[in-house]
Each structure stands twice: as structure tokens, then as C-alpha cells.
Amino acid sequence: MRHGGVGRRWSTWAAAGLAAAVVLTGCSSDSGGGKGKEKKGGDKAGGTGGPSAGAPAPGGAGDKDPRAVWAALVAATTTQQVVEYHGVRTAAGDTAKEATVKEELWSWYDAGGKSAFTDRAYQVAAGAPIKRSQCEAGREWSYNNALEQWSDTKRTCVVDMSHEGKYVGDGILPTGLTAEQAKTFAAQLEATPGWLTPSAVEPAQQNGKSWLRLTVDLKPQQNGGAAANTDLLLRAFRATIPDFTKGPYQIENFGRQSGSPVRAVFWLDPATHLPAYSEVSTTVVDKGVATGATRHLRTEYVFGGAAPKPDRATLVPAPAPSWPDQGTTPPPA
Hints:
eleven-stranded antiparallel beta sheet, two-stranded antiparallel ribbon, 4 helices, globular, Lipoprotein, mainly beta
């Protein structure tokens, strides 16, 4: 595909070549145990590994307590060792101060093998050219719009929290933890009363399957005279992993003090409490004042799959979530 074919770009990216079924190898038939989904990169997502055993997840389809479901989600998700993410982040409203208006984020992480893959395509403003780069096996690749071809930049790339690793994840939860580390991380999230609140859980249907829809609100807190919110996720991770910067972990509004209110909604398999899909919506606040911008990150999960094998002979669009946008609205500032 020539780059001009991506002129149809973002609307076609989400639909091209993606099956409607969500891949959650090993899940129950009523809750998303989907068929293999053919990926843009060539292999089928999901592979043969399936989800890691992870930590025990209590409860089942009758879960009604948001806090209990949140605890089960954290235990099950953070202990997954091989996870692939298909994400789309958009900014709306007054986006003049936003770094990007749209990003396609395709990533994969194998905690045991200490290997990762990232693919990022982004626009800095509406109508701006799409920029795209990949990090695979420690090598950086970039798409040259003028030449309409991929190029090996001859630079190494590092998938850690300061580099490409900040695009690995769903904006809220890390993966690759041990069971004990998962307990520490969960305890750290509980250490700030009134900050992270699982506010609602209810049954939901999508693609003829049953899910638990869990809503979690992250409210700005005063921290040393400044407003803090998602940076408290980094604090929890730092308290969990001694060498925390070496691993990948995407955090909403990474690297900035965030007084922005955030709402995260997860669609979970009732049997495993693993997420199939999530949306993270943010009302952007800067120095206590709403900027007029909002952010919306949509993420689909694939557990236990083989490493992506991107086709750089042509400009193949990255896989986007097969779930339609569920319309999660940002919380009020």
C-alpha cells in the first residue's frame, strides 16, 4: 500500500482486516473466548500461549461490588506476562496545547523474555502528515513519507518508560508483575484515599457476548501544593519495581503533574476478570484551569500472543481496536 492510500487514513485503519471477535485465548465461551484474529503484521493475534495464570480472581458473572471487581482486574491483569495492545488515542476540543491530535499505538511486551515491540503513528495537528516509527528487536524503523518506504534509521531503540515503552499499555495498568509485586502495586493504589475509586460495575453485551463493565474514576489530589492524579500511578509503580524505569508502562499524561480528572472503563471477562477492551477519557486541566481539550484512549488487549511480525515492504496499517467506540465521556473538571 502506498502512503497515499493512508490518505483515507484514520477511518480505514480501524476497520481494515480486523475481525469483530475479541481475542482472549482461554476465556469462557459466553465471555469472549474468541476466534483467532488475523493481524496486519501476519501472525494471528493470541497465538497458542493464552493468558498467563496470574493471580487468583475471585467472583464470577454475578460480581456486583465495584471494589472487588477492580481488585480482581488488577490482580489478573498486572500479572500477565505477554500482552499485546491495539490502541487509538484522540484529542478533541481546544487541542492547541496537545502534543498530538491522534495516535495509533500498537505494542507487545514479553516480560519473561524482556522483549518488546512498538509501532506509533501520529499527527501533531489536524491535517498534518502522519508520522510513523517502529521499535523491533532493539532497532528503530521510520516511515519516510517522501520516499514512501520504511527505512532502518541505524539507531538502537530502548523500550523503557522514558522512551518507546511509554506507549506500551492502556494508560492505567502495568503488566509483567509477579503475584507479590501485584499485591504491592494494589496496596499502593489504596494508599491515597479518595483518589482512585471503582464507582460502578454492571453487566454488558458486545458482539453477542457477556462482559462486566467496570467504571473507575481517578480524581486529582493535592500533593505538596500541586495537583496530582495519574502521576500517582507512577509513584505506585516506583514503589513496586526497584528498577522501575527499565520496563515499559504507559501512563495517561506520563511525565507531567496531572490535575486532570480521568475516567477509565474496562470491559472484563466475567470468568477471568481480564479486560478485553478499555476506554480512558480525560478532561485536560493545566494549573487548575480546564484547557478546553479532552483526550480519549481506546485499547484492545491480546494475551499470550507471539511477537508481531510487521510487513515493512508496504505501509500496512497497524491493527486498531475491533471494538467500536463505546462513548465514554470525560469527567467534569
